[in-house]
Specification:
Number of helices: 2
Helix content: 10-25%
Order of helices and strands: HEEEHEEEEEEE
Shape: globular
Radius of gyration: 19 Å
Strand content: 25-35%
Oligomer: single chain
Number of strands: 10
Distance between the termini: 56 Å
């Protein structure tokens, strides 16, 4: 009877794992994945593979080229592809035709969305935060993007 009970609990645990849709053996998405997340007061926004909110920098002027370097890039780290990776990963809810890259002056490759170079903000530490939204910081305004590539200027 004891062995039957142990057998019953094992499939139950396995069933719980499979209903999440994410097998426990899968690795987390790469940081350079662009996907969607929800921020209270802003709705669905772009986030990286760790779930951190992604921002655009208004002075980049949707040109496909970054103007955020040095001190700016220290506060607003660009979303970069690792060496040897040639394309970003599109997560659920992402329009792959809007996803691209740009070459930075230091030779690194930054991920873009709708021609906006993408950045994280050092002030955000967990998914669901957008403490950089609407900040006028290090040379310009910072905003989140919607999955359709539009700038969201609402304050959360």
């Amino acid at each position: 009877t004891t062995s039957t009970s142990a057998t019953t609990s094992t499939p139950s645990t396995t069933g719980t794992t499979s209903t999440t849709g994410t097998p426990s053996s899968s690795s987390p998405p790469p940081i350079y994945e662009v996907t969607t997340g929800t921020v209270k007061g802003l709705g669905k926004v772009l986030v990286d593979g760790q779930g951190l909110t992604l921002y655009l920098f208004v002075p980049d002027k949707q040109s496909g080229n970054s103007t955020c370097y040095s001190e700016c890039a220290a506060g607003w780290p660009p979303l970069l592809l690792p060496e040897g990776v040639t394309a970003p990963v599109a997560g659920p809810g992402i329009n792959t035709s809007l996803l691209g890259t740009t070459h930075r002056t230091d030779g690194t490759v930054e991920v873009t969305y709708n021609k906006w170079p993408l950045y994280t903000w050092q002030g955000d530490s967990t998914p669901g935060q957008a403490s950089g939204q609407g900040l006028n910081n290090l040379g310009g305004l910072w905003y989140v993007l919607s999955p359709d590539g539009a700038t969201i200027t609402t304050k959360p």
